[in-house]
Design brief:
The chain is 36% helix and 24% strand. It is α/β, with parallel strands linked by helices. It has two domains: 241 residues, Ribonuclease Z/Hydroxyacylglutathione hydrolase-like (Metallo-beta-lactamase, Chain A); 142 residues, 3-Layer(aba) Sandwich (Rossmann fold). The longest helix has 22 residues. It binds MU-OXO-diiron.
């Protein structure tokens, strides 16, 4: 019977055999408006190697695509698991049971991670950092990329094709029938790559910089960059490498993100007045109300910003719960090189803005002045203060960026 799902040829003897998750909209809290793909690859030499697998629910799709190339999945001799997170290993044990490979390789930490995930004593084989394996005529080399973004992460390189299986790195959550980046809209690629970097890789930016330097030092030439999410890069690979170089240093730009929530529009009025001041000072402003903006929208806008201003009303002696939520998310993603301020309106106690300022300070944000708190509804004078705060931050940011 003909297979509905077909493999896509990446290059000679290398096939994409992954799955397309068209309707995935929430990746552990990260809003994925364009769905995603889980990429797995088949490398065919004298023997057959499967590089990574897919999320559990997509096993049959992956196996069907594999069959479309080799007819019978039991022809797979080896599996390489570059990372144990379950979007790439959810069907690994079932695949092992179906395929019965000679060996399944992972990094040293990957062996521990897989054993712990699946409560199994299956004899996974550890590959050395920097090591090489000749798998039935296909030579692979491996580089650990610990904490990019899990302790077990590694990448696999096929020197014969100058092809890097980069795992989560250089990926994006973007479902499409096209398999290659050069078949897709450039603006969409940059938008989704940025969104992915901001929500997944940002805390590990120093390691991203180290990895890029290591790739250059080792003279690793890349003609094909095959990540585990989104399109494969086979042309103008420097486009994505250059974006990663830029994002990794988190260089501040003349852009401010104002994120706030509001109860009776008073904190919102303050936000708008601050934004006017920033814009007058030559800063590009992104105004994000937590009534509509999602966590992943906020952090994506922060990726190339130089200022962060957070506004919260006070509710029952606390900052607003949505503001606590976004600050928790932001803090974990460790944005750097930001100037900023806290602000907000209150009724009778007014702890909200101070609590926000304390968290911003703990994140390393260079705060301009004391938190700006206004009782009840801001009057003209209070709004002028807000506008002045915006101008002051604009001036600070302008000096930083000059
Ligand atoms: Fe795509 Fe970290 O898994």
């Amino acid at each position: 019977m003909a297979e509905v799902f077909k493999a896509a040829k990446v290059t000679k003897n290398v096939w994409w055999v992954g799955a397309i998750d068209w309707n995935m909209r929430n990746f552990h809290g990260y809003a994925t408006d364009r769905g995603t793909t889980y990429n797995a690859y088949l490398v065919i030499a004298d023997k057959v190697t499967l590089v990574d697998t897919v999320k559990a629910a997509f096993k049959d799709e992956m196996l069907a695509r594999i069959r479309s190339v080799i007819g019978d999945c039991t022809k797979i001799d080896y599996i390489i698991s570059n990372h144990s997170e379950m979007d790439h290993t959810g069907c690994l044990m079932d695949t092992i049971a179906a395929v019965k490979p000679e060996k399944v390789f992972a990094s040293l930490m990957g062996v521990k991670g897989l054993s712990a995930h699946f409560h199994t004593d299956y004899p996974f084989s550890a590959v050395e950092n920097g090591g090489e394996l000749e798998l039935g005529g296909a030579r692979f080399s491996f580089l650990e990329t610990r904490m990019l973004h899990w302790p077990d992460s590694m990448v696999a390189y096929l020197p014969a094709h100058k092809l890097l299986f980069s795992q989560d790195g250089f990926g994006m959550h973007l479902s499409s029938s096209e398999r290659f980046a050069d078949e897709l809209n450039e603006a969409v690629l940059e938008q989704e790559a940025a969104r992915y970097y901001a929500n997944i890789l940002l805390p590990y930016s120093a390691l991203v910089g180290n990895l890029l330097a290591k790739i250059a030092d080792l003279g690793i030439e890349i003609d094909i960059l095959a990540p585990d999410h989104g399109p494969i890069w086979r042309r103008e690979i420097e486009t994505i490498l250059n974006l990663y170089s830029k994002w990794a240093v988190q260089k501040p730009a003349r852009k401010a993100v104002i994120v706030y929530d509001t109860m009776w529009h008073s904190t919102e009025k303050m936000a708008l007045a601050i934004g006017e001041g920033l814009a007058e000072g030559g800063i590009s402003v992104r105004m994000l109300s937590l009534g509509t903006a999602r966590r992943s929208d906020v952090i994506t806008e922060m990726l190339d910003a130089g200022a962060l201003l957070v506004g919260s009303p006070t509710l029952n002696n606390q900052m607003f719960p949505t503001v606590a939520d976004i600050l928790c998310y932001m803090k974990g993603l460790k944005p750097k090189n930001l100037v900023g301020a806290a602000f907000g309106s209150y009724g009778w106690s007014g702890e909200g803005a101070r609590q926000v300022a304390d968290i911003l300070q703990s994140m390393g944000v260079d705060l301009v002045g004391e938190p700006l708190a206004v009782q009840y509804v801001p009057d003209g004078r209070a709004l002028a203060e807000c506008r002045a705060l915006g101008l002051e931050i604009a001036s600070r940011l302008d000096k930083i960026c000059s």
